[in-house]
Amino acid sequence: MKDIVHKIKNTDWLQLTETMHQNGYAIIPGLLSEDDCETLKSNYDHSVLFRKTVVMARHRFGLGEYKYFNYPLPEMIQTIRTTIYPYLASIANTWFKALHIDTQFPLQHQEFLDQCHANGQQKATVLILKYGKGGFNTLHQDLYGDIYFPIQIVLMLSEPDGDFTGGEFVLTQQIPRAQSKAIVLKPKKGDVLIFTTQFKPEKGTKGYYRVNMKHGVSEVKEGNRYALGIIFHDAVN
Which Gene3D superfamilies does this chain map to (predicted)? Predict the structure, then answer.
């Protein structure tokens, strides 16, 4: 656990922040060890840890399955969520200020969760996702309530082109008065992908404007793809 905290704190956050400003996403490579990934993946079979299972095809979300953790979260997940949040809150506050949105996020995660809970958003939103052959996830945004945090992370628990093929992470950027742009990413096992939940600021000739983004997963061709999603706001249901 100390090794994960050390890696987060010693990430080049100045460079990562600039990458987030430019792209709306960034990767911290190799945050998790092989053992860390396998430990998190093994949680999938322990039903006591979860509050809800979603079969994606029933809701036309795609093809696959994901499970929402219940509180209290496993220690490793709680540590990552709490440790990385302040760095992301600084980025989020810069974005909202640039877009003249009258919201500033507290730099401690518990303070932000207190705001969620006061609004009736008390359900954990951390989830683990499993896709088999043919699995995919349609483009979407993870909001869950009126109070939301504009950045989230995915921890890749399987190795692309090893444990599975296909299954790329897809972001779309909806550029005003233009066609949407698709971005395809292949984070490796143990990598952490940081990305915008809903939008990012883009600088134009008259200041900053809002560029909406969605994310999803392309079709898995072979194997099984596991990933852990950490969303920093809680849900109403």
Answer: q2cbj1_9rhob like domain
**CATH superfamily for domain 1-230:** q2cbj1_9rhob like domain (2.60.120.620)
Rounded-to-integer distance, Cα 237 and Cα 164, Å:
32
Indicate the pTM of the whole model. Answer: 0.95
Sign of CA dihedral 203, 172, 146, 229: negative
SS in 3 state form for the chain? CHHHHHHHHCCCHHHHHHHHHHHCEEEECCCCCHHHHHHHHHHHHCHHHEEEEEEHHHHCCEECEEEEECCCCCHHHHHHHHHHHHHHHHHHHHHHHHCCCCCCCCCCHHHHHHHHHHCCCCECCCEEEEECCCCEEEEECCCCCCCCCCEEEEEECCCECCCEEECCEEEEEECCCCCCEEEEECCCCCCEEEEECCEEEEEECCEEEEEEEEEEECCEEEECEEEEEECCCCECC
Q: Where are the domains of the chain?
A: 1-230
pLDDT in tens, 85-132: 999 999 999 999 999 999 999 999 999 999 999 999 999 999 999 999
Q: Which tokens is 128 given?
A: 């683990």
Matching residue, tokens 């628990």: 157
Q: How far apart are CA 64 and CA 86, in angstroms?
A: 32
What's the pLDDT score for residue 235?
96
Give the model's confidence band at 66: pLDDT under 50 very low, under 70 low, under 90 confident, else very high.
Answer: very high
